[in-house]
Amino acid sequence: MLERFRNIFNIPELRNRILFTFGVLIVYRIGGAIPTPGVNSAALAQAFSARARDLFAVYDLFAGGAFKQATIFALGIMPYISASIIFQLLGSVWAPIQQLQKEGQEGQKKINQYTRYLTVALAAVQSLGVSQFLIQNGAALDPGIGFRLMVMLTMTTGTVFVMWLGEQISERGIGNGISLIIFIGIVARFPHAVIGQLRVMLDPDSGGVIATMALFALMFVITAAVVLITQGTRRIPVRYASQRVVGGRVYGGQSTHLPLKVNAAGVIPIIFAQSIVLVPTTVLQFAGTATPESETLQMVFGWFQPTSLIYWTFYSLLIIFFSYFYTAIIFNPVDVADNLKRNNGFIPGVRPGKKTAEYIDRVLNRITLPGSIYLALIAALPFLIISIFQSFRVSVVPDFHDFFGGTGLLIVVGVALDTLDKVESHLLVRHYDGFMKGSRLRSRRR
Description:
Blueprint: H1 2-10, H2 12-31, H3 41-49, H4 55-62, H5 66-69, H6 78-90, H7 95-102, H8 105-136, H9 145-172, H10 177-187, H11 190-202, H12 208-231, E1 233-240, E2 244-246, E3 249-251, E4 255-261, H13 268-277, H14 279-287, H15 292-301, H16 309-330, H17 333-342, E5 345-346, H18 354-391, H19 406-429, H20 437-445
Antiparallel strand pairs: 1-4, 1-5, 2-3
Helix pairs in contact: 2-9, 2-10, 6-8, 7-8, 8-9, 9-10, 10-19, 11-12, 12-18, 12-19, 13-16, 14-15, 16-18, 17-18
């Protein structure tokens, strides 16, 4: 393993890309600690400490803790992600966007440009909402129109700068820049969470050393299981009956496979489901307890607290629904079948064209169901683990349970595997052994 790490620095281009990526991520973390002018940090911390887990907590997870501190990067990269998802959804229902997608690289440049414009608009609207939230909670030193404009200008500029940093990583660094920015924001909280859990371990009333060690071991097992499922694919055999020209070379009679991921939608279904299921809790936070109407809201929205069976049932059904919905958007069996037919490829035992599309769609629906159930289990793991360990009087630090499952763990595992795969590709191109030496090289020899 040490030899493979040394091989990374033996390749100047790969070394420069990795160092550049680290440098950009350091800049991002520094910006995430610079407070927005005019914000009372003590009042803001007190306001967040009194809030239950709601949409703001999820938003803060993606911002790497910058949202709770109202820094210049408080909005993080979320406006850009929201804009990208909006255009991705529009691409499946709106003809002008579909036409741009068919224009290749030039069309994609225009879509990226429109995505940036929408990012600025979303960041401006969200920062206005943040300024109102700060004023309502007494975190504004000088509330007024000037404070609102300052927050809007600062946070919108910060979002645009973070978006630019992510694009620089994708172009000049290693891995997907946007994903790595979210990744580093989540991982940066891990040392603090571990230290906090270790302090709890030393407390004689927390359950003892053995119970805490079991907690760490369980986290390791869960992470390994997430890696296994994330890498899981269903391979559909594909054959090419006649010769075809690829890159100036003639190929014919080859056998390959079409990989369909068990979890093709990634973490998006959990994000969508959280955005809906946490709306009642967020509304309850704003409703307060001063009026009879708020008491009624508390009774109704109490059904959607994480301790309620209704909450987890609704949450799980939403994850399963969005898994099918998003998979249908990002993967079109008809296009895949047409590409195979155009390149003289076919699935053994299945007629080309419509029958191939139906077969791929049937297989995709079958593997999406266990994949969506897996996502629902991963999303529920933090609550289940905390409940089990608390029944044995073992305390769990609030920040620590985010690494047992849910959005955070899926993002960390997915981005880490994707970045590792890109590093390995650079090594293999230059005839070095990769990190996954056994499986990758054996498959290439075959």
